[in-house]
Specification:
The protein has 278 residues and is of the alpha+beta class. The protein has a four-stranded antiparallel sheet with strand order 1-2-3-4, with helices on one face. The radius of gyration is 19 Å and the shape is globular. The longest helix is centred in the first third of the chain and has 26 residues.
């Protein structure tokens, strides 16, 4: 937590935070986080954590907040990819296999930012150095799921001439308003069975919550931050120099925006800009 709540090295705080938590949260772990939060909520149904709880209620609030925190970072880490996070820690080499368009940005981060831009602002709105195209037309792709999805391909062109293009595929929920970039893990067919190669019948496989609902970056990251899902941690954080507790929610907002004091909700556009700048 100190990487975000500390004012030192603020530019890298959120990056360090994602790296620290990425090993604790795979895409499939997100379902277990939902189940864990539901169990903690059973300790006292309807409990709203304010930081004044004690005993078993305080423990429930603490663990629920920690689960929410790990879920938040895990959701974003799952979309970005563990290999990309490792590059953020070690540093990218300009013009390397991870930066085939030689612009000193990680290709996978550019692709994720592009997908978020398209989800919020409409298909074709990407401002990154990425070519976006329809791969599978919008339809109800999965049995038992009435949601309409489209599969988009994102290509970063190799101008170095040594590696080939970087290509990735993202699953977008087009039923939502605005569209949402889904959290996915591997590939599966319409019945949810694993498959090996992306095609018109083998898609990025959505990670589903305990009730079977496919999860999105908005569900796992923005919603937790914007609805105060981390507030229950405040009382357990080390005191600041002025004697007050750190506000983990506001610290995360500040780290993403690169500014301080803006209490409004983080938008998908802001998240895209943050990822693009890493």
């Amino acid at each position: 937590l100190g990487s975000v709540t500390s004012t030192e090295n603020a530019d890298n705080a959120m990056t360090s935070f994602m790296i620290a938590f990425s090993g604790s949260a795979s895409a499939q772990d997100l379902e277990y986080f939902e189940l864990a939060k539901a169990e903690y909520a059973k300790v006292y149904p309807g409990l709203t954590c304010t930081g004044s709880e004690s005993g078993v209620l305080a423990e429930a609030c603490l663990y629920n907040g920690l689960v929410s925190l790990t879920q938040t970072i895990g959701s974003l880490s799952a979309v970005i990819g563990s290999e990309t996070l490792a590059l953020l820690e070690s540093g990218i080499t300009k013009g390397s296999a991870e930066d085939v368009n030689d612009n000193n940005k990680t290709d996978q981060l550019e692709i994720t930012a592009c997908a978020l831009q398209e989800a919020v602002n409409g298909l074709g709105s990407c401002t990154e150095a990425v070519t976006a195209a329809q791969y599978v037309a919008a339809s109800t792709l999965f049995v038992g799921d009435a949601t309409t999805y489209t599969v988009r391909s994102y290509t970063v062109t190799d101008i170095v001439g040594s590696y080939g293009n970087t290509v990735a595929y993202k699953l977008l929920n087009t039923t939502a308003t605005p569209d949402e970039v889904m959290t996915t893990d591997g590939l599966c067919d319409a019945n949810g069975a694993s498959c090996n190669a992306i095609s018109g019948s083998c898609f990025p496989c959505p990670v589903r919550s305990s009730d079977g609902t496919a999860t999105s970056v908005t569900d796992g990251f923005l919603t937790v931050i914007n609805t105060g899902g981390l507030a229950s941690l405040t009382t357990f954080l080390p005191k600041q120099d002025d004697g007050t507790s750190a506000d983990i929610t506001q610290d995360l907002k500040d780290a993403i925006r690169g500014t301080t004091g803006d209490t409004t909700d983080i938008t998908a556009d802001e998240l895209a800009a943050f990822l693009s700048a890493l």
